[in-house]
Amino acid sequence: MSKAINRTISVAPMLDWTDKHCRYFLRQISQHALLYTEMVTTGAIIFGKGDYLSFNSEEHPVALQLGGSDPTDMTKCAVKAQEYGYDEVNINVGCPSDRVQNGRFGACLMAEPQVVATCIRAMQAEVDIPVTVKSRIGIDEMDEYEDLTRFIETVAHGGCDTFIVHARKAWLKGLSPKENRDIPPLLYDRVYHLKEQFPHLHISLNGGVKTLDDAALHLQFLDGVMIGREVYSNPYILAEVDKRFYGDAHQVKSRVEVVMAMLPYIEQQIAQGARVWNIARHMLGLFQGQAGGRIWRRYLSQQGTKTGVGSELLTDALDQLLETQQKAATFLQY
């Protein structure tokens, strides 16, 4: 059985989005939500020249999402992940892109549950951290509930006890990855039924969760909820997560305090060669729904990509936002 991680609320792995800068930023808002990396392929980790596994210690709990299907390579990468200090390794069995299919990983592996089970077995023999699976509810014509339960049974027999299930099927041909996130209908009942049929497994749901009330509803039937795009576009949604779902009533940073907390990190990262836009782009939605939120986004977008820009990008944008809020408050007094 996997080492216990409280995965009640997690933030989905999102390619080009949930990098280490994004995760550090989100951790300023929630101390407990489980964060996932972007999907990293075994080839990149084993043969790539860059360091694809680095992360900030403040990001814990943090999980590596891994793309691959060769048990030997998957095991090598799981061992590296454990050495780096990751809290979990998650196998991607949900991405439907052509590039991923050509590499024989992602959603196409739903047609090969025994391959996934073999990887799980090999990885768990060498690491102590949990090895989990993120999948769809089906692919192409293999989209009946019986197909899903066959996949879950086979992979669970390989030793996996934790599944994150995106409640949409994936079309491997005919739909783009973006269309696969929107067009196939969400079938939450199928994920609920999985938990009923496999009560000993930890089942989390992903797909279409836009509010914490949505999450609370799903948690009446399931063990966890993974939120994706809504967190990225409106990151301050995480502000109530710790108190509401983890019973932690610590004082949550205000949006302004989050900005100020990011300044030392930005200076540190710039000193190591990062560009401020690499970090600021993840913060565009921080003031979503707030007076001045549009000004914040516009200032970061227009000024953040210029050369020589430092952490003053955030303070200057914040000054403009606060000035707008002050004007709005003065107007309302009259």
Descriptive account of the structure:
- The protein has 15 helices and 8 strands.
- It has helices at 20-27, 42-47, 71-84, 98-102, 113-124, 145-157, 177-180, 188-197, 212-218, 229-233, 241-246, 255-271, 276-280, 293-303, 312-332; strands spanning 9-11, 34-41, 62-67, 88-93, 131-136, 162-166, 202-206, 224-227.
- The protein has an 8-stranded parallel beta barrel, surrounded by 4 helices.
- α3 (71-84) links the parallel β3 and β4 (88-93).
- α14 (293-303) runs antiparallel to α15 (312-332).
- The model has no long low-confidence stretch (mean pLDDT 94).
Blueprint of the fold:
Layout: E1 9-11, H1 20-27, E2 34-41, H2 42-47, E3 62-67, H3 71-84, E4 88-93, H4 98-102, H5 113-124, E5 131-136, H6 145-157, E6 162-166, H7 177-180, H8 188-197, E7 202-206, H9 212-218, E8 224-227, H10 229-233, H11 241-246, H12 255-271, H13 276-280, H14 293-303, H15 312-332
Parallel strand pairs: 1-2, 1-8, 2-3, 3-4, 4-5, 5-6, 6-7, 7-8
Which characteristics define this entry?
about 325 residues, alpha/beta, TIM Barrel, Four Helix Bundle (Hemerythrin (Met), subunit A), 2 domains, 15 helices, 8 strands, about 45% helix, about 15% strand, globular, FMN, tRNA_hU_synthase_CS, tRNA processing, tRNA binding, NADP
